[in-house]
Design a protein that fits this description.
single chain, mainly alpha, MetI-like fold, 2 domains, 75% helix, Peptide/nickel transport system permease protein
């Protein structure tokens, strides 16, 4: 019996080793990378086949509709469009992995350079917009839920309804007419006044950051002056969505028995709301905020057009009007990668805030 115990003892040890925290983290990281890779390949496949299905001929966008047939066929062969779709897709994946998105017809520059130039402008505006949406929308949603049925709740719900109903172009035009043209409270179209354009050397592409790096506080103030209105328009839309979802989550939590128990025990209402009811909704709020942020990054086309904001939305619009498929696919790929990245960051935050998800 002693011999049997001696021979079977190492088995649990090996099983425990396989389930050690280090191995679990390693397998979790590998699974994360595999999921990320498969998702990205799927994104590449979707963008590739969209580029082949849409009724836009990329060759005509390059040579024009009056080019001779010989020139058309030569350019088509140079672009690799005469090869089978499978070979084109493999070549497309290889180009994207190496950072080759093609050359934009609109600018004559590599698409990757154009995207590196325009995306920071959208990132700057969308980031300020989501900050406004979170800092104002979350408290409004909590207040509306805690005072359900009151005039304050009704007013916040009306604000949310307006955020869903008001067209972006109308809000932007009214904002320019009132706050820029009439009251002179904010700057007009563009990232800075025209005589400041190009003064600060771009380092990150974020003009607020670059002006701080350069120590040019005058340009920093001017950039903030121009950024307030378009970012506020975006923030209003995200605010409406975040406030509405926060209210819904809070109403569900405030009806739970543990909240009633806390109130019966005499816990102050402020602690009941923010410590007991608000904590459980942080995880679903991450999804709401993440989706809203991604939506601002890819859905700011109208705002960027109205405010002449040199971001990816404006760039994508010009590319579509010029049938510039290389720029369109490159922009779509970047936007899709942003969605993937934000979703993965949300997954990490889930594990940080909720131990049950680890």
């Amino acid at each position: 019996m002693a011999d049997n115990n001696t021979t079977t003892a190492p088995a649990p040890t090996r099983r425990a080793g396989l389930q050690s925290p280090g191995r679990r983290r390693l397998f979790s990281a590998l699974g994360f990378l595999v999921t990320l890779g498969v998702t990205f390949i799927g994104l590449l496949a979707i963008t590739f086949f969209i580029g082949r299905i849409v009724p836009i001929d990329p060759v005509l966008a390059v040579v024009g509709d009056r080019a001779p047939v010989a020139v058309y066929e030569r350019v088509r062969e140079e672009m690799g469009l005469d090869r089978p779709l499978a070979a084109q897709f493999v070549s497309y994946v290889g180009d994207v992995v190496t950072g080759n998105f093609g050359t934009a017809v609109s600018t004559g520059k590599p698409v990757i350079e154009d995207l590196a130039r325009v995306f920071p402008a959208t990132l700057e505006m969308a980031t300020l917009g989501i900050l406004l949406g979170v800092l104002i929308g979350v408290p409004l949603g909590v207040i509306a839920a805690s005072r359900r049925g009151s005039w304050l709740d009704q007013g916040i719900r009306v604000v949310g309804l307006l955020g869903y109903s008001v067209p972006a172009f109308w809000l932007g035009l009214v904002g320019l007419a009132v706050f820029y043209a009439k009251l002179k409270w904010v700057g007009g179209p563009g990232r800075v006044d025209i005589f400041y354009d190009g003064v600060v050397t771009p380092v990150t592409g974020l003009i607020l950051v670059d002006s701080v790096i350069a120590g040019d506080w005058e340009i920093f103030r001017n950039a903030v002056w121009h950024l307030i209105l378009p970012a506020s328009c975006l923030g209003f839309f995200s605010l409406a969505y975040i406030a509405r979802m926060t209210r819904s989550f809070m109403l569900d939590q405030l009806s739970q028995e543990y909240v009633t128990t806390a109130r019966v025990k005499g816990v102050p209402e402020r602690l009941v709301i923010w410590r007991h009811a608000f904590r459980p909704i942080r995880v679903p709020l991450i999804t709401v905020i993440g989706l809203s942020y991604a939506g601002l990054l890819e859905g700011s086309v109208m705002i960027e057009t109205i405010f002449s904001w040199p971001g990816i939305g404006n760039y994508l619009t010009v590319a579509l009007l010029n049938a510039d498929m290389a720029a369109v696919l490159g922009s779509t790929l970047v936007i899709g990668a942003v969605f993937i990245g934000i979703n993965k960051i949300s997954d990490v935050l889930y594990r940080v805030l909720d131990p049950r998800a680890r």
